[in-house]
Amino acid sequence: MNKKNVLTVKNLNKVYSKNGSKQTKALNNLNLEVKEGEIFGLLGPNGAGKSTFINILGGSVIKTDGEVNVWGFNLDKNPRQVRASIGIVPQEVNFDPFFSPRKLLELQAGLYGIKTKDRITNTILKLVSLEDQADSYARSLSGGMKRRLLIAKAMVHQPPIIILDEPTAGVDVELRTTLWENVRSLNKQGVTTILTTHYLEEAEKMCDRIGILSEGNLVALDTTKNLLERIQTKIVYFILDKKTNIKDDLFESLKIISNEEKKLVLSYEKSKLSIDKIIAEIKKQGVLIQDISTDDGDLEDVFLRLTKS
Ligand code: ADP
Ligand code: MG
Asked: N or C: which end of the chain has fewer CB within 10 A?
């Protein structure tokens, strides 16, 4: 079954110009689609154009040209409906530190014209585990709590799409996990999720599909699974009964990372060499293999190769 697209971007360009002179091409002919219900990750180093893209969707940055459709609404023709369809969690904390979480959510609901009886403030506070802090000053919240409050704020008008811009930047590991649980539970309730990150491991774990941005160009767009399959370098750890004298130049692409008394670590390119040959060579030397484990590498490999110009 094919899911419908909830976001379609065609030939999107953004050029920032400063006082007419210096120009920055932040997005270069971006084309992508996001499907209903998925978690889509936009990955890229600092300056790649991730925030620019998100801020165009949110209306705080004006695109240079191209077409954007969100939830069936065209950004040029129906900007209000586009805004109503998405909840944006910005990269920077942007709320008044002297309001309480409850007050902030009530104000935000007011901005969206949601009647008091239709507000779901308590439900949202519960969703992001901030019930206990509902009436404290926002400035007294921890970094992770502030992030969660930003998510809550983006959910006030119950948008079908939530967009998170580097939600875990500067958040410690434990809180990061909680944050991702929040995002997952929202997604399970049917909210399509778009997030940006430069933590590759995070994208790998969270996202169904990943787009990789580099200097405004989309250099990869695929399922996380397919991207992982494109990883070439394989690392193998052997536990042996004695030392081998296996050398780099024995096979194409083979690299000996370490060769100790009973432990051998090496890498090779999947397209150029197979593990059978390496195993056969070790056996030929009369060395007994006691254990083998492999490491598939991660998206960092793909990322580095794709963004290396
Ligand atoms: P990312 O979020 O991936 O780190 P950004 O979208 O923030 O990337 O930035 C993309 C590029 O656009 C960078 O080169 C950045 O310096 C530039 N840029 C971003 N915002 C502005 C702005 N308001 N004015 C001028 N240049 C900008
Ligand atoms: Mg950014």
From this structure: N
